[in-house]
Amino acid sequence: MAVTISAPTASSRAFDGVPAEIAQARAWVRELLPTGCDRVDDVVLVVSELTTNAVMHSASGAPGGRFALQVEVDAAAHSVGVTCIDLGPALVKAARPEGEGGHGLALVKHLADSYEVRAEPTSRTVCCWLDWAAERSEPVNGGRR
């Protein structure tokens, strides 16, 4: 039986820093995920949390602000990488109703198999990888990281 190894595919897209773009980001990422990925809902939830944080808690949510997503799908290794890049800390913290919110990054950390944040003076990058079960075999390279 021949084994086909496909190269990872990477896609990037910028979004306006407005709440309506969060749904667009979720839909875009869902389209990128391959058949056989049993963690589609987890990946979409991670994207939702990261993009919500970009819009609500960074300068990306200011008028004219933007955020970017990068998605790398490695079907051979059964993993997907999600990177969200925002414009760094907001000048004013987002107002929340009491008892609401504040759990997004904890949820991302729980769902992701690896997670990293890099902060720069004018940007913040959050990267995470989620692995999924192989349908017929173990990952070709033994996994990521």
UniProtKB/TrEMBL annotation:
It comes from the Bacteria. Keywords: Kinase, Serine/threonine-protein kinase, Transferase. SUPFAM superfamilies: ATPase domain of HSP90 chaperone/DNA topoisomerase II/histidine kinase (SSF55874). It holds the Pfam family HATPase_c_2. InterPro entries: Anti-sigma-factor_SerPK, HATPase_C_sf, HATPase_dom. Residues 19-126 form the Histidine kinase/HSP90-like ATPase domain. CDD domains: HATPase_RsbW-like (cd16936). The keyword Nucleus does not apply. This is Histidine kinase/HSP90-like ATPase domain-containing protein. It comes from Nonomuraea antimicrobica.
